[in-house]
Amino acid sequence: MENINRRNFITTTATAAAGFSIVPSNVVAGLGHKAPSDKLNIAGVGIGGMGFGNLKQMETENIVALCDVDWAHSKRCFDYFPKAKKYWDWRKMYDEMGKSIDAVLVATADHNHAIVAAHAMTLNKHVFVQKPLTHSVYESRLLTKLAEKYKVATSMGNQGSSEEGVRLIQEWLWNNEIGEVTKVEAFTDRPLWPQGLAAPKTGMWPPETMNWDLFIGPAKFRPYHRMYTPWTFRGWWDFGTGALGDMACHILHPVFMGLKLGYPTRVQGVSTLLMTDSAPDSETVKLIFPERPKERGIKIDLPEVEVTWMDGGMRPMKPSDWPEGRDMNYHGGGVLFHGTKDKLICGCYGRKPWLLSGRVPNVAQSIPRIEISHEQDWIRACKETPENRVETASPFSEAGPFNEMVVMGVLAVRLQDLNKELHWDGLNMQFTNIRDNEEFKFCIDDGLEIIDGHPRFNKVWSEPINARAFAEDLIKHTYREGWSLPDMPS
């Protein structure tokens, strides 16, 4: 693995900024390899927010194309990479520049992640996709299988997976430092954007700098309103996954990896008032994972485990021996592993792990460390042959199943009014205890009024919704006409 220290990174970046030429590289893109000194031709899709930060970490390479539906929000990125060709529509970009692009960064709103990344992989392009990896269970499964089929280098943008904390947690757990784990509690202090809202009753004209139809993409069409984007898309079900999808990919990653989790078998969600269009202000999700087989090099059994997620200001109760005055929240959230011998606590991204007993484990390193940025590690993997590739910290072979766990939490919350624990068949991507005739309703508007100083609610409810059909569409979205995914590999 090539080590890139800060000084080398800055030097290389300055050289790249001086100018570059686009060399057709379709012969090697995703199929062969490049020498570490050769530059990849990278395209960015969704570059107004986190995508811009990702691209700045990739500027050792040739940034040859930039695509976004909001050119005002993306102006700073366009200005930063003035030689890159600009696009509104990623499909046109693929048609025109597919043969000269090696790799694609995807940092759109959540609902467009899968369609942009999936089609890139069918063109043999390496892909880096911001978290959450996808908007649905089916999309996660599809990206996992496409990555396996096309043997491209992949990474989800949960950058904490490249940090020290996640590795320490795995090593401590596997070395029996806290015993067997049957319960985990995790939380985030988000959302920071508005949630729990009714959809705007009227639309607005989109600004001239935005292509609203392309933003909608595969989702059901609705009129533009400035409440929906940018950034605030996370709180709207059609476009985002709420605080859970935003932060669980960071916070639950050491849980998924350290406890060797797979598909949950039972799930349940509760929340504050659940609206038709918007994620709730606060929610709690419980996922039950079955006993897993013991693996070589792991000194503990892996019994059935209950994982609880909380957001919107909720967090676990502190154990009786918790250090007085110590905040459980570190960098936006935290995790509490309940072991039979001790308790392990960490912050968001797996940072600063520690044991409640105060003991500091002395465990030999068994997991390689990553000494470069999350983005640069993906670039390194892109330049290696499939046969000799060292996988990234969050390749789709792991990020795909992990993201299924994350979006399963969304399913549990949105189906909470069935008032029962849901049973999940992960292999076949279906709930097994939702009956054909079950129905429920959503709140469309809370109808809050203040009359003579007193609050009054006149809630407006949807018509009865068939639960099975609704669940199936959450698992595998029905895309808008004109938008489609590649077929699921067998």
Automatic annotation (TrEMBL):
Domain Gfo/Idh/MocA-like oxidoreductase bacterial type C-terminal as annotated: residue spans: 205-256
Pfam families: GFO_IDH_MocA, GFO_IDH_MocA_C2
Gene3D superfamilies per record: Dihydrodipicolinate Reductase, domain 2, NAD(P)-binding Rossmann-like Domain
Highest taxon, organism lineage: Bacteria
Organism: Mariniphaga sediminis
Matches recorded under PANTHER family: BCDNA.GH03377, NADH-DEPENDENT DEHYDROGENASE-RELATED
GO molecular function annotations of the record: nucleotide binding
Identification of the protein by name: Gfo/Idh/MocA family oxidoreductase
All residue ranges annotated as the Gfo/Idh/MocA-like oxidoreductase N-terminal domain in the record: 42-157
